[in-house]
Amino acid sequence: MGDFLPVGSLLRRCLLIVLIGSALYCAFQTVGAFRKEAVFLFLNVGNGKAIAVRSPAGRVLLIDAGTDAHGQSRVARWIAERRILPALRQAGCHRIKGVMVTHPHDDHFNALPVLLGEFYPSLLWVPPYPVRNPTFSSFLQQAGLKKVRLVPFFRGQRLCLDSVDGLTAEVLYPDRHPLTGLVDGEVNEASAIVRVSYGRVRVLLTGDAGVRAQEHLVRRGDDLRAEILDVPHHGLRHLSREFVRAVRPRLAVISARRVGSAGPADGDVAPALEAMGARIWVTGVSGDLTVRTDGARIRLEGERSFGDEVL
C-alpha cells in the first residue's frame, strides 16, 4: 500500500504552488507591460536629421543620421560620437535592425559611417535611383564591406520591427517606377516618406520631401493621418497646407537649430501647423525629444520643455 501525505501537508503544498504561480504570472505581466512600450527618438543634430524607432522587443530602425556639417567632416564625426551614439545607447537602442537614408544629402547620412562602426544593421534602405554624391557612394561601399544588405525603397514596402506587438514601418513614397536623371535640387522631391504604426499611434517621417511629393500623396487619396509629424525639410517653407490637413498631427517635430525670420518654421509653416492645433517642437531650441507609447497613450520626455507629459 502506497504512502499518503497528511491532508495538512497536501493543502500547504497546493497553496505554495498557487502562490508561486501567481507570483510568476504577476512578474510576467509586469515585464510584458514594460516591453510593450515603443520609443521614438528625435535627436538634436542642428539642421540635420536623426530619428530612431525602438520596438518593445528592442529592435531599432534608424531613419537618417546626419548633421549640417559638410561631408564626413570632423564635426560630423564629433556629433556622431558625442551626441548620437550616447543618446541611442541611453534610449536602449543596442540592436539596429535597419537603417533608412531618406535621400542622399549630407545632413541626412554623414554621421552613419561612425554608427556602422558601432552597430551592425542587417538592412540598409537606400534611394531607388542613381546617386551622384561621392560621399554617399563611399558610405555605400563601406556598408557593402560590412555585409549590410542594400535594398532600394519604394511605396508598399513594409518592415516589421516587432511581429508580436505589431510595430511596422511602411514606405508611402516614392512610387516603385525607376527615378532617373535627378539633379541635386530634385532629390528632395524623391525623399522617402515612411509611416510607423504601433497600435492606434502613427508617426509620419518625411525626410526632406517637398511640396510636390506631399501633394502627390494627398491627390492619391492616401490615409495620411498621424499623431506625430516629422516636419519635412527642417521646416523651411516646404509644407503644403493640404498635406497638414490630411495628416492632422497633434505634435509636429522640426529638426533644426532655431526658429527665426529667415530660418525654420518661417512663412506659412508654423501657422499651418498651429491652425491644426499641433504642438511644435524644434530640436535645436528644446533639445532631444523622446516619445514613448503603448499604442494608445503617448508620453513626451524632453530636455527643456514638455517635461514628462501625456499627449
The major beta sheet can be summarized as: 9 strands, mixed
Give, in spatial order, the strands making up the sheet with the most strands.
Answer: 6-5-4-3-2-1-14-15-16
> pLDDT under 50 segments (min length 5)?
27-35, 260-266
Helix content: 25-40%
Total DSSP helices: 9
Reading the helices and strands in chain order gives HEEEHEHHEHEEEEEHEHEHEHEEE
The averaged pLDDT comes out at: 85
Which structural category do the helix and sheet elements fall into? alpha/beta
Distance between the termini: 69 Å
Computed CA radius of gyration, to the nearest angstrom? 23 Å
Describe the overall structure.
This protein is globular. The model is unreliable at about 25-35 and about 260-265 (pLDDT under 50). With about 300 residues, the protein is α/β, with parallel strands linked by helices. It has helices at about 5-35, 75-90, 105-110, 110-115, 135-145, 210-220, 240-245, 270-275, 285, and strands at about 40, 50-55, 60-65, 95-100, 125, 150, 160, 165-175, 195-200, 200-205, 230, 250-255, 280, 290-295, 300, 310.
Topology (elements, then pairings):
Elements: H1 7-35, E1 38-42, E2 50-54, E3 59-65, H2 74-90, E4 95-100, H3 106-109, H4 112-116, E5 123-126, H5 134-145, E6 149-152, E7 158-162, E8 167-173, E9 193-198, E10 201-205, H6 211-220, E11 228-230, H7 241-247, E12 251-254, H8 269-275, E13 279-282, H9 283-286, E14 289-293, E15 298-302, E16 308-310
Parallel strand pairs: 3-4, 4-5, 5-6, 10-11, 11-12, 12-13
Antiparallel strand pairs: 1-2, 1-14, 2-3, 7-8, 8-9, 9-10, 14-15, 15-16
